[in-house]
Amino acid sequence: MTSLPPLTLAIAGAVLALWMALSLWALLTGLSLRRSSRQARGQADRLADLLQSAPAIPMLVRSDGRIEAPDRLANWLGRTTVPAFLSELVSEEGGLEPEHSRSLAAEVKAAQRGGRSFVLPIRARGSSRTLLVRGGPAGPDLASPGTIVLWIFDATESQSQIEELRKRVGDYREALEALSGVIEAAPMPVWHRGADQRLSLVNSAYVRSVDGESAQQVIEQGIELVEAVDGLSPSASAARAADANAPTARMVPVTIDGERRLMRVVDVPLGPVGVAGYAIDMQELEEARAELRHLVQANRDMLDRLSAGVVQFGSNHLLQFCNQPFLSIFGLSPEMATADTHFDRVLDAMRDAGLVPETADFPAWRKEKGEWFQSPNAREEHWRLRDGVHMRVYAQPLPDGGLLLIFEDRTEHVQLSSARDTLLRVRTATLDNLFEAIAVFAADGRLHLWNSRFRQIWAVQEVLLATHPRVDELMSALADRLARPQQSSLVHQLIRAATVERRQRGGRIAFADGRYFEFAAIPLPDGNALFVMLDISDSRRIEQALRDRNEALEDADRVKTAFVSNMSYELRTPLTSIAGFAEMMQSGYAGELTPQAREYVDAIIASTMRLARLIDNVLDLTQGAAGGLPIERKPVEVEPLVTGLAAAFEEKAQARGVTIALALRPNLGTIVGDERRIRQAVEHVVDNAVRFVQDGGRVLIHGEGTHKSVRIIVSDDGPGIESRLQARLFDSFARFGRNAAGETTGLGLPLVRQFVESHGGSVSLVSEPGQGTIVTIELPRGE
């Protein structure tokens, strides 16, 4: 065996040592990395657990649309698994509402392109949970470029809180508006003063009390409701309340509408915002107190007229009042009814009269009745006394600690109750002999009671009714009796409305044999429903006959209108000829006329002109009734129209000493309408006023306007019109009243109504016999 040189052995030893050192270093490094790996894994697990318990769930959306998210996100989205891609999440099957799906896809796409953040609320389909998504680009250390990180929060509770806060704000706003409305609508004056004790707010009652034009005017001028009393002004009184930081009240006299009244003025400090005040009319309170005293006395007088005995005790158990029947029932003397009589002494007197129940221990019984004063509820007892007397006792504790007792003799009632069975038999016999069919249905819809007429009308066997069928079953079995079988459900609906909804309803129904019945379902106090049927077959036939007669009358009216219109046109031709020849004679074409002949010709011309006007009026009436009255639509100046009419009647009025006065306001302006028709309407009214007023009377024409309408009022101090005739004054061809010359109202007023109503206006008349007449024409401005 050859031995190795020492140098070789040294080199081999060095290499071996180096290898051992490297192995040891590698082992230590591996152990260190292993510890670091375990720590990192533990930290990662803790972070994962932290994310799992966090209120928000993270989700990564890669640039290619892939989704990375915890599994618990699926539960929030209403899915079984988390979608793998964004397109799957925003699809129709993704679980989100369609509108939210589109919004989320758009926001994610915009964030990937522009790198901006967004906040978006979303909701899963069919879920009440609201999710809030906060998204933005992911950092370079977290993911590759184009990746979006989404944090999803469960915002259901916060959204509910937001909605609740919104609701509260709305409620507070409504409460503030309601409070402002209450203050404004308060019947008493209410005001507010600022820190400088000057008026800053007043309500409408305050403005009315000081005869102000508006709240702003009252505040600007500082108009006070009350005057200074004992050198103390209203502002000084409010300042004193503010300094004391306590409400103050004082009684002061106030003049309202010229009447001196006593009012209680209260100032309530509101801290730095000023002082509120209000005034209560104590005059009415005093009157109410006096009225209350009279009412109490009237109540006692009424109680004296009752048949029941009434006695009232105060909180000290002393008698305060008893009526005469109480004294009569128990045979008590007037001295016993004095205010010094104790409750126990009254019971003793009642026992002496033998009108309390027999008891072995009367003191204990009396003490028990004394507990009625402290009872929280009313007590009712029935006393059976000697000689078969039944007494009903009602004990009502009073709010002031007193006691009210009512004693009613029920002996007669007990005797009458024994006759109840007889009355029931009488009721049954009565129902069976009624002409109407009657049935009573219970609250559950079952037939409870019926009469023989009901059974005869429906031709149903008694055996079936005796089973007390439900209304739906009964009507299904009787549907073939009706002309329209489907109407059988109508009876069921009516019975349900009467029993469940407690509403009365009725209707009509036709039978297959031609009979007609009117029926009604009426709710009864005990919860049942009364079903009543009445045969109206004869009435139905009479109704049809009346309808046919009415149609015939309408046809006759149309024929009459056409006849009057045609006759009016036919009368025009000879009337025109007469008027023409008369005018020729007046002009001298037939030679010179004698004065008497000229007078005759003038009378002919006047009569033809009057007849022409009457024919025109008749034509207007007939055209208006037929709806064919021609109306122009042009601007009309109202003031010149009325002034010209007044001037036209001046000569006729002066002949009788009648004064025509005008009172036209500048705001009359113009209206859109038919000037001729409007002039005719006003002319007829003024003509009637001038004709019917007495000699030396007065006619006033008043005109005023608003931005919507114009009103022309014609009043006179004539004889007036009876109330029974006023309603028919505007009827066509009506004649009412005569003036001194024997003239009637004519066709003028009916024409006035037609002309005014054709313009969309209205006409009204107010009159009192001996007080004159007022006719008001109101016309809209028009377009």
TrEMBL record:
InterPro entries, per the entry: HATPase_C_sf, HATPase_dom, His_kinase_dom, HisK_dim/P_dom, HisK_dim/P_sf, PAS-like_dom_sf, Sensor_HK_Regulatory, Sig_transdc_His_kin-like_C
GO molecular function: kinase activity
UniProt-listed Enzyme Commission number(s): 2.7.13.3
Family annotation (CDD domains): HATPase (cd00075), HisKA (cd00082)
Alphabetized UniProt keyword annotations: Coiled coil, Kinase, Phosphoprotein, Transferase, Two-component regulatory system
Pfam families linked to this entry: HATPase_c, HisKA, PAS_7
EC class of the enzyme, as a word: transferase
Keyword Hydrolase: no
Catalytic activity: ATP + protein L-histidine = ADP + protein N-phospho-L-histidine
Domain Histidine kinase: 566-783
Coiled coil: 155-182
Domain of life assignment: Bacteria
Protein name: histidine kinase
Lineage summary: Bacteria, Pseudomonadati, Pseudomonadota, Alphaproteobacteria, Sphingomonadales
